[in-house]
Amino acid sequence: MLLRALGDEIRHQRLKAALSQEALAASAQLDRTTVARIELARVHCSVSVFVAISEALGTEASKLLQGALMRYRKELRASTRRASE
Q1: Cα–Cα distance measured from residue 18 to residue 6, given in angstroms and rounded to the nearest whole number
Q2: Is 45 helix (H, G, I), strand (E, B) or coil?
Q3: Helix or strand (DSSP H, E) at 38
Q4: pLDDT tens string 3-19
Q5: b/e map of 32-53 (b: 16 or more CB within 10 Å)?
Q6: Contact, 38 vs 30, CB < 8 A?
Q7: Is the predicted pLDDT of residue 84 greater than 90, yes or no?
């Protein structure tokens, strides 16, 4: 769930910055498919890749992680509520 939240936050920030996956990948010196796989939570990314993505998005890595953690906690609360119903 956390990996998915991280991918969702990266996608959210990419779209907010009006960047395509190709543009983000080029700026972060990654392959477009790597960006796509990270956004879809298909792969784990290293800290260096995470930092490269955050820099390409023009944001601090800590802010990107904070956004992902907020998404994760929100989803965790929602799934806990669904399970208790």
Answers
A1: 18
A2: coil
A3: helix 32-39
A4: 999 999 999 999 999 99
A5: eebbbebbebeeebeeebbebb
A6: no
A7: no
Packing angle between helix 32-39 and helix 21-28, nearest 10 degrees? Answer: 110
Q: Which two tokens stand for residue 35?
A: 């960006």
**Which pTM does this prediction carry?**
0.91
Confidence check: pLDDT of 85 > 80: no
Spatial CA neighbour of 26 closest among 55, 67, 64, 63: 55
Per-residue pLDDT band at 80 (split at 50, 70, 90): confident
Report the 10 Å Cβ neighbour count for 6.
24
The pair of three-digit structure tokens given for residue 45, joined into one six-digit string: 């990314």
